[in-house]
Amino acid sequence: MTEGFPLIGELPHHLVEQAVRNALAEDLGLAGDLTSQASLPRDATAFATLSAREPGVIAGLRLAAEAFRQIGHGVSFEPQVADGASVVAGDVVARVSGNARQVMGAERTALNFLNHLSGIATLTHAFVEAVAGTGARICDTRKTTPGLRAFEKHAVRCGGGFNHRFALDDAILIKDNHIAVAGGVAKAYAAARAYAGHLVAIEIEVDSLAGLEEALGAGATIVLLDNMDNAMLRQAVALNRGRARLEASGGVTLERVGGIAATGVDYISSSQITMGAKPLDLGLDVQIA
Predict the structure, then answer these.
(1) I need a labelling partner for 273 at 20 to 30 A (CA). Which of 141, 149, 236, 288 fits?
(2) What residue numbers bound the domain in which 34 lies?
(3) Is the pLDDT of residue 5 over 70?
């Protein structure tokens, strides 16, 4: 992985445990894995290799390990790489062994988490590579799968991106509808400054150079430039003269992101990296002993 990537934090265990418990309950239902119960001997042992079938970046190993831990006693999950690792087709990601019925019962839950989150990490990595050398940071948004936000944002970090706010109580982001109700950029920003504690970050969204001027005049230190083309983004950077940190957002695609970064903005946020990522193809191959 490229040097300078952000540190990847540990996922809180209680979130991992709860998410996996819910996922296993959804898949096993009331009667459990009927196929494995019907076709596999009770005491059969399975040895499985979890491998990459295409290149990508791995994320979600904690969730996969928890799925095999919760399914029953004695199932061993041994990662061969860490979250954030780049893999190519054929690379072994983990080895799993234990009671065959239990291994098969947790297989899909483990793979669903791994495939989905590794897909996000892989796409994020592509965005990060596309802006390499510009100084711009790739950030996620709150557009995430309900119930999976912490894990999807973890996957963004695994791919080299950075996290925007996690929730509405994380920071103040004054958007166009807030501005419309408050009566203007300056009024909305002044009200937020009067309300916020000294440790609460305040960002305000604008969609024009006039709006940027008003935000800077109100004392804004972080400004989101919404749906501006590259020419306007360059003008905004020049107008700003380093007074505030600038974030470009809206219509950000992998094809556009390099040009956006070249305008000189500090951050680029995109929902594509969480909402538009294709799952990474990882598979579990089992031999029954």
Answers:
(1) 236
(2) 13-121+277-288
(3) no
